[in-house]
Amino acid sequence: MTMYRILTLSLGLATLITASAQVNMNSIMQKAQGNQGGGASVSFEEDKSDFVPNKFIGSFQMEVHSYKNGVEEKDSPARLNFYSKADMTLFHPVGDGKSKEEMKVLIDLKGKWQYTLMTDKKGKRTAMKMRKMKTTVSDGSSSDKTKEPTYERTGETRTINGHLCHKWVGTNEDGTWTSWIAEDLQAPFMDMARSVGVSMDQPQTRMPKGMNGFIMEGEFIDAKGKERTEMFTRELSIGKVDESVFSLDGYEVMEMPTMNFGGQ
Length: 264
Description:
Order of helices and strands: HHEEEEEEEEEEEEHEEE
Low-confidence stretches: 15-39
Number of domains: 1
Structural class: mainly beta
Mean pLDDT: 78
Number of strands: 15
Strand content: 35-45%
Helix content: 10-25%
Radius of gyration: 18 Å
Largest sheet: 13 strands, mixed
């Protein structure tokens, strides 16, 4: 699983988890599998792993644009606001601004709880509480058997969001990855993946050797040149996040039963 797939998986799973309060979990699993490509397998189970604090403390918005045959796809761009402190993570998928309804996902890493926070059209707030889940994803016929990219630090630099970024390029039979990395900042993406329960006990989920820092901008172009994905970091803020961001004040909390689903 390449780094860009970890990023898009975190974005996609956070959005799917948010939707889980309103739709059947089986349909969520099918959608997640569809987003991962042919042969994908997704399974969910209660997360009983040891507490690991977030290393990134701060907030930012991740913006992902998807193109096919040179045309931006219908649901693009996808935007996700991310807030983090040592023991809490908040994902906030950003809508088009036309609806007053709002949904967020709050993850309590230490207590192993997951809250889906919903605000309806009338302003009523409800929090659906359930045990934190562990998500295991197998990309099946493609990435599990595809050689990991060979990454190179090119020596080119740019300043993005006030930070000096180094250009990295990775290539394999899937395509080409280009990343602009601020090496002075702690990378948040492993925290994101761990928060949504992506299994971290496999080599594919680790940062490539020698690559350290925060990916400010990135691009993936598939080997056939037909699909392109761009990722941008917006509204970056490093340091303590206002505690009110993680507060359940004003929400009616409803606890949901824990359900385990195996891969298909």
